[in-house]
Backbone:
């Protein structure tokens, strides 16, 4: 029984030309003669005319050899074009020497009439060689361990399920790294289909990335790789092909229709409630993209629980709306209407009454209540559960997708071509015992210092821009106060909803968002430049370094304004007569004060504007921009007959998915993760907004990958990489930030201290809290530069005699022996805040570590499978070698054997009953 059923073809390396005989090799960038339309590329095979070829064909003209990769280029009649021609000649000649087979489509047959397409096919020998080099895992035995199915109620889960053929397009096998010298050891039914298209294009790209384009006598090691040829314009594009059009399956029965299945079952928006076909995504796009969508889907699923709890907390705030005693006192004309507040800025701000903040006080209670404390603690535990359960999910995927121990393989075997080119030094690798390029330590230190200095400079630039926004807030607040001075400083055309504080906060948040977008655009290019300058060794190291740089920048860029409102605004304002000024006493910019209802509502406003704005802008950028570019680029194709618009031309008109495309997808989600964890105590609805966005995000990304982008080169990744450490760091920091938000930004602790220690009467009550929380200042003691202009004071102030005003603080009144110094209640509240922070952090961290300890990172089922697979590999390899040795000895002794030992083993592994004749 022979499992090697692939056809024995003559794999003579032939480069095919266009049917246009008038077009010579010199004209289109090749050093090989053109073939006439009647020539047969391989013995026994006839060439298929392009007009008769299927529009979705992914084969050479012989209809047999599959196209694994496509390169495109255009004619250039300039002097630089001659250099490009020479580079193409040498590059393609070297590709032929490696063993690849090439076929060129003439520009006269392209839809734009000027683009050549070089199609690449990889024969079995080349695939086997590089599969051995890359240690690609392939099946050697059907999995015999019963899979553990989670108990689910089928009637409830059925609406969310996809067909089994879509969810699991391949059988479950035990796998082992491919060895070219042990082909009989593996389950090979057909050599042509043994390696899937994603593996084939990964191998081709590995060759293209390392193939030189210099002549042998020159040995210019800097002239190497398709990436440099794309950068210098020698080629215009390099991409693997999609297998068919996304809106209908392929007509060719020998070709898969996986793209169509992905679009039908995954990319359509109305499939948002369905599970994702992760195995099909992995099979079509590779493990790296599959891991991203697995993580995004799991994150979205876990957000459901956080969103439900956050919504409950918000509803609790709505139901307790009427029980808000302090807001009732603020709005009461006899209480809040009689309290005169001190001016909030110098000269341009007049005196005002407390009841002017009635609406903002009610709004603040929606988020600043007891439910907020519970939700902050819940999110600290939720984030731990999310990370721990993701580790288990990731461990399962690592095994199912043959990614166990992959990191060592990538570190040792897949050096970046740029590293190999730029590092001229060589040293012995103690692991592989082979000479490898390396970068001297002095050069590493110099590059690291330059990189670190650049990052610090840009972070300082962000802080400088944030200070500029703060200065804007301080300057504009006075202007808004002057405009809105009538009718208790409210804008009459909009009623009583807009206050100077709200107008300042909204406009400053919008300006800050624009600055964030501009700095992002600039820094992305700087981060890529300095990462390239560091010359990382492997692709994994490159991505990790770029990830850390981009995240630190984005962290400061997106979160700095929220940190300012949460932890700095209103904390360093001083008191009447001794206010604190920005940039010292030389400026007239007095530090901002919080609304009497607290700064929490302003933090909520800031969070909503930045978070929601980023999500809306991100979805527009991800969906609309690629669609517009593709529509513009393919508009000419609609004028051509359908038969002329080939598979490679259709894909050429799509957008290119860059090497860092997935990086930006992760970055977007991790920044969102920071918003819903770091500041969630101020806005319990943040997880709900994130959930709604992610439901759309999954389908937008799926639609974009399936319809708007060329097929990415398949790549392996055993995890989400450096993002996992970043998520862990954000999770730990979130416990601290939420504890400080509850303690210092909200009014929760001062209210509790008043309720239990300073309430009037014998029973605890919140009556009188507002009067207790405001200190008194003698108006006659105001310095001249703090006094408001006479024209800025309201009419009611000039008609009555008012001698004192109130301000938000806990200080002794005028006439006290320690007047205007902090009262004992201030220190009690401060002690309660610090105690709350310590208790909350310890409770959450203890629960986090207990949960992490209780939940193992790797499921027991996966551990058993890994051990079983390793045992079988050792056992089968041992038996394989023993049987092979016995066969050799028997043949050398003149013995006769009826059946090949390797064939018998293959039959046993497939559980096939056969007789050896």
Residues:
């Amino acid at each position: 029984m022979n499992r090697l059923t692939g056809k024995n073809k003559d794999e003579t390396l032939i480069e095919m030309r266009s049917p246009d005989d008038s077009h010579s090799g010199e004209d289109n960038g090749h050093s090989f003669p053109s073939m006439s339309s009647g020539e047969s590329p391989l013995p026994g095979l006839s060439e298929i005319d392009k007009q008769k070829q299927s529009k979705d064909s992914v084969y050479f003209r012989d209809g047999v050899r599959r196209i694994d990769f496509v390169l495109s280029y255009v004619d250039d009649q300039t002097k630089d074009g001659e250099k490009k021609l020479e580079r193409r000649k040498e590059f393609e000649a070297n590709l032929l020497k490696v063993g690849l087979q090439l076929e060129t489509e003439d520009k006269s047959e392209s839809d734009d009439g000027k683009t050549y397409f070089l199609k690449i096919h990889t024969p079995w020998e080349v695939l086997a060689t590089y599969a051995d080099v890359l240690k690609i895992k392939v099946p050697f035995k059907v999995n015999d361990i019963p899979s553990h199915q989670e108990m689910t109620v089928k009637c409830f889960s059925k609406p969310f399920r996809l067909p089994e053929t879509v969810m699991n397009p391949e059988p479950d096998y035990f796998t082992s790294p491919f060895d070219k010298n042990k082909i009989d050891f593996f389950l090979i039914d057909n050599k042509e289909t043994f390696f899937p298209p994603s593996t084939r294009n990964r191998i081709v790209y590995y060759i293209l990335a390392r193939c030189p384009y210099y002549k042998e006598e020159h040995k210019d090691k800097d002239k190497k790789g398709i990436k440099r040829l794309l950068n210098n314009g020698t080629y215009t594009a390099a991409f693997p092909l999609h297998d068919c059009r996304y809106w209908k399956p392929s007509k060719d029965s020998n070709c898969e229709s996986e793209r169509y299945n992905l679009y039908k079952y995954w990319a359509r928006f109305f499939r948002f409630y369905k599970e994702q076909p992760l195995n099909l995504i992995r099979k079509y796009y590779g493990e790296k993209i599959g891991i991203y969508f697995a993580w995004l889907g799991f994150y979205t699923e876990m957000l459901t629980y956080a969103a439900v709890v956050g919504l409950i907390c918000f509803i609790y705030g709505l139901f307790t709306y009427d029980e808000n005693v302090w807001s009732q006192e603020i709005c009461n004309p006899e209480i809040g209407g009689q309290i005169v507040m001190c001016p909030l800025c110098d000269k341009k701000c007049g005196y005002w009454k407390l009841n002017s903040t009635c609406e903002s006080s009610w709004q603040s209670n929606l988020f600043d209540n007891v439910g907020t404390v519970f939700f902050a603690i819940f999110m600290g535990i939720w984030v731990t559960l999310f990370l721990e359960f993701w580790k288990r999910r990731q461990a399962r995927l690592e095994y199912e997708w043959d990614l166990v121990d992959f990191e060592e393989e990538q570190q040792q075997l897949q050096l970046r071509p740029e590293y190999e080119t730029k590092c001229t030094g060589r040293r012995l690798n103690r692991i592989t015992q082979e000479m490898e390029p390396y970068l001297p330590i002095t050069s590493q230190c110099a590059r690291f210092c330059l990189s670190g200095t650049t990052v610090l400079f840009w972070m300082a630039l962000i802080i400088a821009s944030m200070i500029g926004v703060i200065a804007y807030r301080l300057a504009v607040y006075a202007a808004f106060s002057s405009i809105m001075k009538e009718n208790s400083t409210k804008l009459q055309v909009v009623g009583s909803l807009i206050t100077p504080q709200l107008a300042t906060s909204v406009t400053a948040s919008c300006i800050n968002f624009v600055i964030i977008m501009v700095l992002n655009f600039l820094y992305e290019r700087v981060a890529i430049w300095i990462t390239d300058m560091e010359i990382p060794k492997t692709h994994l190291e490159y991505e990790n370094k770029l990830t850390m740089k981009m995240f630190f920048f984005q962290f400061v860029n997106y979160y700095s304004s929220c940190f300012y409102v949460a932890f700095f605004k209103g904390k360093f304002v001083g008191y009447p007569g001794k206010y604190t000024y920005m940039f010292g006493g030389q400026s007239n910019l007095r530090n901002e004060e919080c609304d009497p209802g607290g700064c929490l509502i302003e933090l909520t406003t800031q969070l909503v504007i930045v978070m929601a704005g980023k999500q809306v802008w991100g979805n527009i950028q991800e969906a609309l921009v690629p669609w517009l570019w593709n529509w513009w680029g393919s508009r000419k194709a609609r004028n051509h007959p359908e038969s002329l618009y080939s598979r490679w031309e259709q894909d050429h008109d799509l957008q290119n998915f860059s090497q860092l495309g997935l990086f930006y997808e992760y970055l977007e989600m991790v920044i969102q993760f920071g918003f819903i964890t770091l500041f969630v105590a101020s806005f319990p609805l943040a997880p709900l907004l994130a959930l709604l966005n992610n439901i759309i995000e999954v389908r937008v990304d799926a639609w974009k990958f399936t319809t708007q982008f060329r097929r990415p080169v398949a790549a392996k990744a055993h995890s989400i990489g450096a993002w996992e450490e970043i998520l862990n760091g954000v999770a730990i920091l979130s416990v601290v930030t939420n504890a400080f938000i509850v303690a210092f930004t909200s009014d929760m602790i001062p209210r509790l201290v008043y309720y239990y220690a300073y309430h009037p009467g014998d029973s605890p009550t919140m009556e009188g809290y507002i009067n207790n929380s405001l200190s008194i200042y003698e108006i006659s003691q105001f310095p001249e530069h703090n006094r408001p202009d006479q024209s800025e004071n309201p009419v009611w102030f000039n008609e009555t005699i008012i001698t004192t005003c109130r301000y938000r603080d806990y200080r002794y009144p005028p006439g006290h022996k320690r007047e205007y110094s902090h009262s004992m209640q201030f220190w009690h509240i401060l002690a309660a805040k610090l105690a709350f922070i310590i208790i909350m952090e310890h409770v959450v961290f203890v629960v986090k570590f207990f949960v992490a300890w209780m939940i193992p990172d790797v499921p027991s089922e996966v551990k058993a499978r890994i051990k079983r697979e390793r045992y079988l590999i050792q056992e089968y390899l041992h038996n394989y070698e023993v049987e092979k040795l016995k066969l050799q000895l028997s043949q050398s002794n003149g013995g006769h054997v009826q059946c090949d030992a390797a064939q018998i083993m293959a039959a046993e592994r497939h559980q096939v009953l056969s007789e050896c004749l």
User: Anything to note?
Assistant: The chain is about 55% helix and 5% strand. Residues 275-748 form one domain. Residues 1-46, 486-496, 907-917 have pLDDT under 50 and may be disordered. Residues 441-483 form the longest helix (43 residues).
